[in-house]
Amino acid sequence: MGHENILSVMSQIPFFDVFTREEKEIISADEDYILGFKDKEHLIRQGETDFSVFIILQGKAIVTKNESPHSVISALESGAICGELSLLGQRPRSTNVIASGTVLALKLDGILLETLDPAIQNKLKDQLIQVLIQRIDLMNQSVIKLKNELKDVFQTGAKLYDALGKIIGEEEHVKDKFTAAIESGKQIKGGLENVIISIENLLREH
Predict the structure, then answer these.
(1) Under 8 Å CB-to-CB from 55, ≥6 apart: which residues?
(2) Number of neighbours of residue 203 by Cβ within 10 angstroms
(3) Phi, psi for residue 147 in degrees, rounded to 5
(4) Mean pLDDT of the 36-40 span
(5) Could you tell me the CA-to-CA distances from 90 to 7, 15, 41, 51, 83 in Å, in that order?
(6) Using the 8-state DSSP alphabet, how is residue 95 labeled?
(7) Among the four 105, 119, 167, 170, which has the fewest Cβ within 10 Å?
(8) Mean residue pLDDT across the chain
(9) pLDDT tier at 72 (50, 70, 90 boundaries)?
């Protein structure tokens, strides 16, 4: 893809809205930082210590973890940013980002940033921080929604338990089995609540 086409694509991505055309030309001038990826090729590999950010210019990618490689955590499209935590926090990659079809991406790393004018550096850092803030907001909303849904599920379960208890009456052996099932449900509820607490603690750390 020619440089003019790359600039045209960048102009359609909200991340670059705060940059002038000249600044976008500078950011994308080095062809070594415009990378193409084939289907199923990794942009980011979990556990690696590469501190680059990738901005998907064209194509799609999926996010997975090694612990559950066939579960897609999220799908990324043109304009998506990935890897910002590693760049800002200097930490190993926590997920995989894998091309779903052909992908064209702009790579930003510390070496490139050091060559840029301070004004452009600051804009890039500000934009990356905004990306993190938006993601934390979305996580907060997801946690609240999950807590409310969990509460509704177990309130409904409690009502069902009371209703079935009246129907079962003296059938103690049936009642015992149902009680055991409810206890298993409580254990699951406790595990889910622990997950929610862990997520909330993570959000507070950021």
Answers:
(1) 13, 15, 79, 80, 81, 105, 106, 108
(2) 13
(3) -65, -45
(4) 96
(5) 29, 22, 23, 6, 10
(6) S
(7) 170
(8) 81
(9) very high
